[in-house]
Amino acid sequence: QKEVEQDPGPLSVPEGAIVSLNCTYSNSAFQYFMWYRQYSRKGPELLMYTYSSGNKEDGRFTAQVDKSSKYISLFIRDSQPSDSATYLCAMSVRNNDMRFGAGTRLTVKP
Amino acid sequence: ETGVTQSPTHLIKTRGQQVTLRCSSQSGHNTVSWYQQALGQGPQFIFQYYREEENGRGNFPPRFSGLQFPNYSSELNVNALELDDSALYLCASSSERGGTDTQYFGPGTRLTVL
Lengths: 110, 114
Fold this sequence. Notes:
The complex is a heterodimer. Chain A is mainly beta.
């Protein structure tokens, strides 16, 4: 079993849809949870960061962490074609070595 | 753009050769982390350097080694290249030790081993 599991998709939605992206993990020691967006031929870009459990909102993006279920989510409201990218979840124990999911490829169609 | 630069952009090597990849961190950042991203996979942590010393290492063999310079730029060296080393190599800089919450990634170096 991988330490971090993420459905690779691909996921295709119409413009304006609400997108839900998820990851599960097995290491209960993870405390830091991140979501990155990666466009083709670019490095990952940090979208959201959460420490421990709870929700965090930033514009159209909402990150949720449920440590009891070892489950994290990223919601994108009013999705735009410019949101088309690969979304990576990442988490770490000691705030240095991040463990990434495989990434979910998202396409938002106009 | 994050201000983190990497060179070269692309590199082709043959099995058994050695390679050095370079990373310039964002201004004011003293921590650099290196990751390997195989095609269709998420990045895997190789190691992190904080103020010129190694500060954590992932599950990579000793032929993966690194260096951080006084100006906080960094090198990743890979000896005895294997076909499976073909990947995108990413560096990320941050302004504090650890600092997963503030890591900014460069565009990566695409390494192909033939």
